[in-house]
Amino acid sequence: MALLWHSGDDDRDEWEPVLRRLIPGLDLRAAPDLGDAREIDAALVWKPPQGLLASLPNLKAVFSIAAGIDALLRDPTLPDVPLCRMVDATLTAGMAEFVLLQVLKYHRGLDVFAAEQRERVWHWRRNRRPDERTVGVMGLGEIGAACARTLKRHGFTVRGWSRSEKALEGVETYAGQGGMARFLAGLDVLVCLLPLTPETEGVLDARLFAALPEGARLVHVGRGRHLVVADLLAALESGRLAHASLDVFPEEPLPEKSPLWGHPEVDVTPHIASTTDPESAGRFVAENYRRLGAGEPLLGVVDKGRGY
Ligand code: NDP
Ligand code: OXD
Question: Which CATH number fits domain 2-88+276-294: 3.30.360.10, 3.40.50.1370, 3.40.50.720, 3.90.650.10?
Answer without folding.
Answer: 3.40.50.720
